[in-house]
Design goal:
249 residues, alpha+beta, 2 domains, four-stranded antiparallel sheet, 6 helices, 12 strands
Length: 249
């Protein structure tokens, strides 16, 4: 599930909340420190995290606690990730087009690493300041139930799909990330709507329907999922994905 947090210099987070976020997401953590693009990420325990947090808590921080729903456990899989020398980001969610379900290349990377390499690193350096590209990124994250936080070298923070998280005591959380939180779950992240059987029961086929009904289900040319009376060559989610990809160099 993971949890991404933006703590402005004047935001307040209790040690108890941080510990609960770590306990719920114990597979690594990372911090981006203010606008100087200094960061730390590791798979060490909570005490190591809290020591770093205490040293930097008077500044703007972007924090990530990881659950290894995609990829192995290791510091290289921990967030943040570098987009370019002036921009880092953390993410919470599951990116369908770069998941192991869809991505055929066995490169050992997580969906977020693949998304960074294939999309973010290929966008113009100022893509967050471009209204059209930013909206396309927002649309893609919304369609994947994904949230992201970017911090640049000037200290600017951008939250993508902000409305899907919550502000508590001046800090933004991508989800509750604690023991009482009820989220969508890993497999549920790929369930979109009643007319999408892309991953319903792990079936990517129309054979689950009687032969007389199969003609109503059409295969998306991009993701290979079947959709009820699909209009055009691609499902809505893949159209959003292809539009974002179109901004890449």
């Amino acid at each position: 599930m993971c949890v991404a947090i933006f703590k402005p210099f004047d935001g307040r987070i209790t040690k108890k909340r941080l510990r609960e976020a770590y306990r719920a997401n114990p597979d690594g953590w990372g911090i981006v420190h203010d606008g100087r693009i200094k960061y730390l990420k590791t798979v060490s325990g909570f005490n190591g995290f809290y020591e770093a947090y205490r040293n930097w808590k008077s500044d703007n921080l972007v924090i990530h606690f990881r659950t290894a729903s995609s990829g192995n456990i290791g510091h290289e899989f921990c967030h943040p990730f570098k987009v370019n020398p002036d921009l880092y980001f953390v993410e919470n969610g599951n990116l369908y087009h770069y998941s192991n379900y869809f991505y055929e290349k066995n490169d050992g990377k997580t969906d977020v690493q693949r998304f960074n390499d294939d999309i973010l690193k290929k966008l113009p350096n100022n893509f967050l300041d471009n209204p059209e590209i930013r909206q396309s990124l927002e649309d893609y994250c919304k369609s994947n139930f994904t949230k992201a936080i970017f911090m640049d070298s000037g200290g600017k923070v951008d939250i993508i799909n902000e409305q899907a998280g919550e502000w508590i005591d001046g800090c933004w959380y991508s989800n509750g990330g604690i023991k009482n939180y009820i989220g969508y779950g890993y497999s549920g992240a790929y369930y979109y709507h009643a007319d999408d059987v892309r991953h319903k029961g792990g079936i990517i086929t129309n054979r689950m329907f009687p032969p007389a009904r199969r003609k109503n289900w059409t295969k998306c040319e991009t993701c290979g999922g079947y959709f009820y009376k699909l209009q055009g060559k691609n499902c809505d989610d893949c159209q959003i994905f292809l539009k974002l990809k179109g901004y890449c160099n």
